[in-house]
Amino acid sequence: MKGKKITALLTCAFLLATSTFSYVWAGPASGDVTGGADAGMTGGYIESKLDENAPVYEPQIDMYSTVSSSYPRTGDDAIAYLKENYPVVRDQNPYGTCWAFSSMGLAEFGLINKGEANKSIDLSELQLAAFTYNSAADPLGGLSGDYTRYYNDKASENYLMHGGNYEMAMRRLTQWSGAASEADVPYSNASSVLQNGLDDSYAYSKDIAHLQNAYRINIKSQSDDVKKMIQLYGAVGALYTHYYNGENHIKNSYFDSSATVGAGGNHAIMIVGWDDNYSKDNFSGSTKPQSNGAWLVRNSWGSDYMGYFWMSYETKSLRDTAWVFDYDTADNYDNNYQYDGSLKTGIDKYYDQCANVYTVPQKDGVTSETLKAVSLSFMQNANVHYTVKVYTNLADTSKPESGTLSATLDGYTEYAGYYTLPLDDEVILKPGSSYSVVLCTNGTKALECEMSYSEAQDIHDTSTTTYETIASDNSKDKVSFYYGYGRYAVSTYNYRIKAFTTNNKNETPAEQKYTVTFDANGGTVSTASKEVTASAAYGELPTPEREGYTFSGWFTAADGGVQISASSTVELTADQILYAHWTQNPVVEPEKTDAQKVALVKKAVESEFVKTDGSNSISQDAIKKIADAAAASTGVIDVTVTVGEFSKKDATSTSEGSVSASVVITCGDVRDTVTFNKTIAKLPKTDAEKVAEAKAVVSTAIAEIEASNDLAKENVQSAINDALKNAGITDVTAQVGDFKKQAATSKADGSVKAVISLSCGTATDTVNLDKTIAKLPKTDAEKVAEAKVVVEAAISAVDATNELTQANIQKAVDDALKNAGITEPVVTVGELTITAATTADTGRATAVISIKCNNASDSVTFDKVIAKLPAPTPSEPDKPVTPDKPVTPDKPVTPDKPVTPDKPVTPDKPVTPDKPVTPDKAVTPDKPENKDTGIIEYNPQISVGDMKADVSVDEKKLKDTVLNDEQKQAVEAGGKADIRLNMADASKTVTDKDKKLIASVMVKDEQLGMFLDLSVLLTVTDKDGNIITDKELIPQTSTKFSVNVKLADELLLKDSSKVRTYQVIRVHDGKPEIIPSKWDASAGVLTFETDKFSTYAVTYSDVDKETVKDQDKDPESKGDTAGQNNNVSNTNNAGVTAKPVLKTGDDNRLFLMVAIFCFAIVMVIVGVRMLVRKK
Questions:
Q1: What is the C-alpha separation between 600 and 393, in angstroms, rounded?
Q2: How many C-alpha atoms does 700 have within 13 Å on its Cβ side?
Q3: Phi-psi region of 245 (alpha: psi -120 to 50; beta: other; left: phi over 0)
Q4: Is 268 within 8 Å of 43 (Cβ atoms)?
Q5: Dihedral sign of CA atoms 819, 822, 824, 827 in order
Q6: How many Cβ atoms are within 10 Å of 408's Cβ, its own excluded?
Q7: Close Cβ partners of 1116 (under 8 Å, ≥ 6 residues apart)
Q8: What is the distance in angstroms between the CA of the first residue and the CA of the last residue of the chain?
Q9: Contact between 155 and 466 (Cβ < 8 Å)
Q10: Which residues have C-beta within 8 Å of that of residue 898, sequence separation ≥ 6?
Q11: Which pLDDT does position 344 carry in this prediction?
Q12: Looking at residue 1173, what is its pLDDT?
């Protein structure tokens, strides 16, 4: 038993020690934050800045009594109550229209709570979404110039998938565009509406409810206010981010926190109740709310999937704005005077007073309108002190206060929101008159005005616009004004003020009195004026007098007008002036002579002929009747009129006509002639002629259109419209249809085709657009690629010899490019590196050929093996000349005994550095492995910048380790592997981050020598030439291979009094590491093994030789150096060992490791002694 305890003790000690090492040396685990939910429904909500930071309303007194702890019930009873009394949960699938479903749901619940609807109410979400994104003109025309459009054909998704928000819905609904019945615009017609649009008649004529008020309440700070609104209106709207990981299906609940991650999206819902005691334990998962309490939510994903669910009060993603929509039925007002049709809103930061001026239109059967209410919009401000003044019968519409002050309102708003304010005073508005609504916010900068906004695929190209909501230019309309510096001025944008009126039909205001003034119009009248009553008779009217004239009656104009008698009914809206009309008494004149009669009749006939136009229908009889009537008007009865020499040429649509005749006037022996001579105007063109004329214009227009890849249907339509406009053709419709475009490339022409339909009345025709788009000029990249093919072909024909020069390759490349007609790319052969061939071994010639055309560039590597030189054919040599006896040189100068440097540190027999690493004949790479069935080519590319270091690797080992099994099998089956090793000076490319990582493991006084970057690109093809692996960057190999770096002269130690130690530091995947290395002082080569392609640094540190001597003499010091890894002999003087570098990043961890390890050793010793004693 005791032995088992000891064994257990030893095991624990061992585990403790090993776990300590694991903790100290292991880095912190990096966890991924990923979503893993199955695909499901999200909302499609575009978050507005109004969904956050709802301002807090601070009432002067406590508004509400204590709020109950739950509503409408608790738990499942609450859901059952809602299902019984309110409409079934709707289903937005398959579109992102949660915002429209929530907005219409608020209307349905609100009208039910007001007793103005029942459970069967069903309002159209599709109508709201369609006209939110595609506006229609309002009945009064106040929104003329404002428009909103969504272009499905240009966007990546249609507007039903694009999403929306409460602010957009609120703006459109307050314009009275909805709410409409689901029966009129059913959601099932969504696909058809997306394709064909929705008729504008559904925008305003189908509304059955109007949004009167909208409030933003902070649900986090004023939850009791939100609860009161739920009781009052049945629901509030809210926004949250629905994470699928937040669905807690215990009792159908939802909760997310700052730790919740995964798939999801913004979603609009209705909050329809609450329960302060809803248990936090009803939420599953490791993270639960800290307290009880939840909102009851109505969703829009159908009844089967989270139709109603409970959401914790502490849900992190629930935005702090709760939206309250207050609806009334659509029969409360008749007219909505407004100018703000855009969905985008701005705040006037400079002024606190503004005004909108409206003009009352004439409407059939409407004698006047009564102004009932005005609306104000303060969506970003609470507690606004407002003053509203209404001025009627404006004398000058550019001066909003130039009329009669008819009503005043003064008060404070509560929450941030949109308010409809009924007027206390009755204000009558007459058709044709103008009135103003003046708003002052008494120092608060809260005035809202409409703004323009658009979205596009390319913000620099308006033709790619996908969505726009545009505000009209008030600088032209001049109906909205700001007040500053003591005067009103025209605002650029329209202020968000509306006015609501009712129509008054055939009503007579009690005892409406008007003054009638009498103008004798050349005569005299005894009564200057009298008072009359509206809708009553004028009564007795005075009789004026004028010498030589007879009074004809009172009229409403001095010349013409309507006659007014005593029995006429007074239908006035303002005071009136009546004018006397007179008939001159006849004057007895002496008998005229025949000549006078003829002259009088001639003048009358000529006068009538001047008034008469020529036409195809005029005839000789018609001219005779005109002349007879003129003669009769003179009162002369013995004059004869005859018409002769009648001639007529009818006019056509292309040419004018003419008509002429001679009219002879005779009286007794006197006669005279009047000539009737008129031009007959061209006839209007027929529909067919108009279409033909338009066809010619359109044909010319499209002939002038230049076909290009950028040509769009809209461009063609615009060109045709401009051509027709310039030709003065306005009644022919030209529509571009069946537009098809095949873009041109640098290799092939493109085409553009379309059919232009022309119509006028019943006449139609078509014009075909069929144009070729010329080939595009080659891109720089294509030019480079074309040149690369030629260069590769050219260098393939160049033989590699020891005598090959850079100029030889350049000439071969230049000649090939010239023969191919390629002149633009610049092709330069880089430095040629030749390893000369010998009779014993092959050589190699390498160079990098760069190809550049402006910003496009590429390169081709010239890399060829130089064949072995042929062995010389031995000839029978003459007998070797017996040379004179070799000159026995003077005895070689025995140099002064080499300066024995204080007995060079005899380091226990200099550590022969494992024989300098002769780097596997590094520079001369192995020949490509020509197996019977496959080829492996090794293509080193070495560039070490100005340092001129000589770098090589263990080529054979690299080949063996870089290919995986699949790639090796492909090569063995007859394929080919191209291994491109790149070793480059990284001093200019190493990142600051890597520099810091390298510095973190360097010791004091250690210096940076050079940076080196190692990378391998692998390309593998099968025996048929198919690419299996294309230039894959290999991060590391399965086994290590050796790298030999012959250090540049400037990195070698020149000071004989010191000893230099080298180290290699590698940075891979963000971790610095000192790797073992060996230094061959005689060859000047630093060798290390690695299996990773990374950034490397060679560092060095110098110490005095005396210090090294002392370490060698100190046995304890020698013991330390002997314990180092493979860094033995890593100095310039053989036998001197490098100073060890601790591999740790944290002294505290190291201390902890040592302490725990020692503890574990003690425990092991104690355990062993106990076992010994037991035995």
A1: 54
A2: 11
A3: alpha
A4: yes
A5: negative
A6: 13
A7: none
A8: 14
A9: yes
A10: none
A11: 95
A12: 64
Which pLDDT score is estimated for 1154? 61
Beta strands in 393-433 (DSSP E): 404-412, 416-429
Model confidence, pTM? 0.47
Half-sphere exposure of 871 (CA within 13 A, CB side): 5
Write the Ramachandran bin of 251: left for phi over 0, alpha for psi from -120 to 50, otherwise beta. left
pLDDT at 951: 66
DSSP 946: G
Distances (CA, A) of 947 to 951, 975, 1060: 11, 38, 19
Alpha-carbon gap, residue 210 to 337, rounded angstroms: 14
Q: Are strands 253-254 and 247-248 parallel, antiparallel or unpaired?
A: antiparallel
Q: What is the pLDDT of residue 1029?
A: 82
pLDDT at 209: 93
**Cα 809 to Cα 619: distance, rounded to the nearest angstrom:** 100
Sign of the Cα torsion 1133, 1139, 1140, 1143 reads negative
The dihedral built from the CA positions of residue 302, 306, 307 and 313, taken in this order, carries a sign that is negative
Q: What is the dihedral of CA 722, 724, 730, 733, to 10 degrees?
A: -100
935 vs 854: CA distance, rounded Å = 37
Q: Say how far apart CA 437 and CA 770 lie, in whole Å.
A: 57
Are the beta carbons of 847 and 832 closer than 8 angstroms? yes
Give residue 248's pLDDT.
75
Q: What angle do CA 748, 750, 755 make, to 5 degrees?
A: 160
- The C-alpha angle with vertex 425 and arms to 421 and 427, in degrees rounded to 5, equals 95
Cα distances (Å, whole numbers) of residue 1134 to 238, 376, 1061? 78, 92, 11
Decide: residue 100, CB within 10 A, 0-12 exposed, 13-18 middle, 19+ buried.
buried
* 1080: β partners: 1085
Give the list of residues 6+ apart from residue 728 with CB closer than 8 angstroms, or none. Answer: none
* Distance of alpha carbon 161 from alpha carbon 514, whole angstroms: 61
d(CA 250, CA 313): 16
The per-residue pLDDT for 939 is 66
Q: Which of 352, 385, 356 is nearest to 484 (CA)?
A: 352
Residue ranges in the chain whose pLDDT is less than 70: 1-43, 59-65, 249-251, 261-264, 507-511, 589, 873-934, 938-952, 956-957, 1031, 1107-1155, 1168, 1171-1175
Q: Which residue has the tokens 């007529």?
A: 648
**Assigned token pair, 997:** 């990582």
Q: How far is CA 644 from CA 664, 673, 1013, 1095, in A?
A: 8, 10, 114, 115
Can you read off the two tokens belonging to residue 147? 């428009």
